[in-house]
Amino acid sequence: MALTGRAALVAALGSLPVGILAPSWTGILAVEVPLSLAILCDYALAAPVRTLQFTRSGDTSVRLGETAAVQLTVTNPSRRRLRAHLRDAWPPSSWTAEAEQASSRHQFAVPAGERRRLTTLLRPSRRGDRQADRVTVRSFGPLGLASRQGYHRVPWTVRALPPFTSRKHLPSRLARLRELDGRTSVLTRGEGTEFDSLRAYVPGDDTRSIDWRATARQSAVAVRTWRPERDRHILVVLDTGRTSAGRVGDVPRLDAAMDATLLLTALATRAGDRVNLIAYDRRVRAQVQGRTAGGDVLATLVNTLATLEPELVETDAHGLSTAALANAPRRSLIVLLTSLDAAPIEEGLLPVLPQLTQRHTVLVAAVADPHVEAMARARGTVDAIYEAAAGTQAQAQRRRTADQLRRHGVTVVDATPNDLAPALADAYLALKAAGRL
Known about the structure:
The N and C termini lie far apart (about 70 Å). Helices cover about 40% and strands about 25% of the residues. The strands form six sheets. The chain has a six-stranded mixed β-sheet with strand order 18-17-14-19-20-21, with helices on both faces. Strands 1-10-9-5-6 form a five-stranded antiparallel β-sheet. The chain is of the alpha/beta class. It folds into three domains: about 1-160, Immunoglobulin-like (Sandwich); about 195-225, no CATH class; about 230-430, von Willebrand factor, type A domain (Rossmann fold), CATH 3.40.50.410. It comes from Streptomyces silvae. This is DUF58 domain-containing protein.
């Protein structure tokens, strides 16, 4: 039993005349006994909580920053009218602190034998699965003096997916892709590496494109046309070691790398390429393998990346290289999303790079911190001078690390979180245009 504020108010109002007119035990009992009986009757008339039945429906996934609606259906099988307050509890990251009070608490009434549907709005602030906690119900009597309280477990899971904010860059990159692979122009000799078709010779065609065997079988001279090669293999390797846990502004490095991965995947699958992914630190944390080009690749990646979190361990570069080679058996573009910190690169990645670059094209993408550049430009005070020196030193170190990678034949993309995804897409298109894929 739980007493309400109304019961306390009635007791307080009843004690005033007793204290003024008849300050005695008789006066107190004259007020408290009827009030106690009213409370007991009110409690007895409140609808039971344990017999209530609950079912859930609604959204099972939502992009980070958007709102999911989860419906909770309450069935009252008893013969008494249910007047209740309900709290639908979820983890704190399921909504903002300001929205939790309004979203999780409901006040409603259900006649005997009927049901009501309540809607809880979730707006997750972090990626991953959000599991519904207990549903706490407080059932009030008709007088509102006392209530029954209990809880039920009604399981439900809502997965918060990566937001894919770089989607806005996809149309412009697709337009450039169409220009590269000749979808917006007539195919001619030299525009690709994969044979497409034969056509009649016209003056000005390169004589090296003449197909003499086909010409011998027909009366006109035939020339070959070409198109860019399709079905290339792209392996995206996400470094989930300790450096990926760092935040650049409000964005974790791993989240920025995921956003870049999604844009690259959307672009590459439109180009007809095969995209695989592994997330690695000291072991494989997530893997998407064997997916052919198609619309389900991006959805699979989004669902896989949703629950991925960084690990506070140093990445095993040798194990990462071995895992990459095992997942890229034929010539591939290996996209490694990691940091450009000198120690992990020089001591871990550089010694194993020859194993990767010998058979594959390697592209390293890293998240740059714009605060470092701001530090390097700081002027005016003694503290600013020290910050400028530290920022300049950090920038010079990143440039040296990037130059070391380039000397090994690696393409390097170093950009801020907002620019990393379009910069990586541009690097992919540049490699494609240069015929290095």
